Each structure stands twice: as structure tokens, then as C-alpha cells.
Amino acid sequence: MTDEAATPPPDRAAEPPPPRQAVISGSTRLYAVLGDPVAQVQSPGLLNPLFADQGVDAVLVPVEARPDDLERVVRGLQRIANLDGLFVTVPHKAAAARLADRRSRTVEITGTANVLRREADGQWLAENFDGSGFVAGLARAGHRLAGRRVALAGAGGAGSAIAAALLAAGADRLTLTDPDLPKRDQLLDRLAAHWPGRVRAAAEPPLPESDLAVNATPLGMRPTDPLPFPPELLPPGAVVADIVMKPRETPLLRRAAAAGHQVHHGSHMLTGQLESYLTFFGLPAPATG
Questions:
Q1: 120, 179: one domain
Q2: Average pLDDT, stretch 268-282?
Q3: What is the pLDDT of residues 154-189, one digit of tens each?
Q4: pLDDT at position 9 over 70
Q5: How far apart, in Å, are the Cα atoms of 244 and each of 135, 214, 247, 249?
Q6: So which residues are the catalytic ones?
Q7: Phi then psi dihedrals of residue 213, to 5 deg
Q8: What is the CATH number of the domain that holds 73?
């Protein structure tokens, strides 16, 4: 055997090792992420390698549940004795909040949840880290929020939490748009009770007057989706953020970049939530160094 045959090519030798995979056993603790669809969810790919690296005997699996079946699915999962928690994605975040026994202050304000945890007494606590994760992702990317004017498209599960977190982080004015007017106006009323004078609703986002424009809708998950708003109308220096994670480069972000705007990807929201998820479920933080 020649030296060339025995030595891998330099580029292959430099590749990082594949992530460790969880080993499923009879003592494995279970987590499920609920959505419709679930093909786009990124949390199993983030958390399962982390469980394996940290020696945590747990696994997170995707569960596709139709809206009409959600309550039966959740109630069934809650009866599984070794299931410790549920993650929730579109379109179930409002319904999931109603299925919890207890709700955090954030969930009470937003009316939505993206995680449920089994408590020591068997009750289920709902929390929502979408907003805090989104704000953490913006901060890590160097985007200042204090005093900013924000146009937010989407008053649903993620949008409601993002709206509350942006206001709590010091956004000067937040304008909500959503085609579901009752849902938009109910969220407006809840937010205005905590941040009076800083939030309003509109039929169209006031893009020329905005520093940050956020797509908190599912638009962009499918190639045929229309844009949630035209980013070209934003002023120079504006930031365009999308919470859609797959595809990473959504049509909105491509158009915004072409118009010269800064763009912020959906994956930042998930990574921004990681520490909160682990703390909430009592799991070890990733190793550093």
C-alpha cells in the first residue's frame, strides 16, 4: 500500500467528526416537538447531539399533529410516564397554551406557548421562549433594540412572543400587521396593557418609518409563498429579520439583501433559545472550551 493510499486527502482529514448520536435504552427520557408540518423543525438536530455529547439519556422526536387532533395527541403524550416535556411549533402555540395547567407571565401576556414541562406534582407548565430567543439572537448579532421602530408581520404564536420581547427590550414603537384582524387586535390589547403608547396595529407595515422589519409568519417556507412585505420600502440601514428557518435564505431575505439591507436569519432565534430550554428542563449547558 502506497503512502498516498494510506493517507486521506487533506480536505477530508480536516473535516470535523460527525455529531454523536443518542443511544436509546429502556431508561431514555422522551421529549417531543409538535407541529403541522414538522419537516422544517431544527430542534431535534440541535438538541439530540447535545444530549449525546453531555451524556444525557434523552431524545427529542418530531410529532406531526393536525390541529383537530392536537388535544388528543397532547393528552396522550402527557400520559407517557417517561416523557418530560413538549416543544411546540406552528400552528399549535396558542392551542398548546390552553392545554397547560399553569402558565408563565409571558404566556399569559402573549396567549401562546412553545414549551410545556411536566412539574413534580404532575401538572404541566407552559412557557414561551420565542421572544427572548429572538431578542438574544439580535443582540448577539450586534443589533440594538432600544429606541428602535419595529414593523412586525404576524400576530400568531411566535409573533406574539416576539412582540412582547421587543417591547420589553426597549423598542420605541412596534406596529403589528396580520390578516387575522381579531387575533391582531386581541394581541394589541394585551400588549398595550403592559406597554401603553408603544404598540399599534395597521393594515400594512409602515416600512419607510421602520428601523427593523420582522417576518413572524410562515410565509417563505414554501417557494410559492408571497413576500410578507416588500423590503425595498425600508430606509437605508434597516434590518430585515425572518423567523423561517428552512430554507435559511428565504425569498424575503434575498430581496432584502439585494436592496442593501442587513438581514437576520431564522436560525438565530433557535440558538438564542437554547440556554433557556436547557434551564427550563433542568438539563446541562453545552460544554465550552
A1: no
A2: 92
A3: 999 999 999 999 999 999 999 999 999 999 999 999
A4: no
A5: 15, 11, 7, 9
A6: 93
A7: -120, 130
A8: 3.40.50.10860
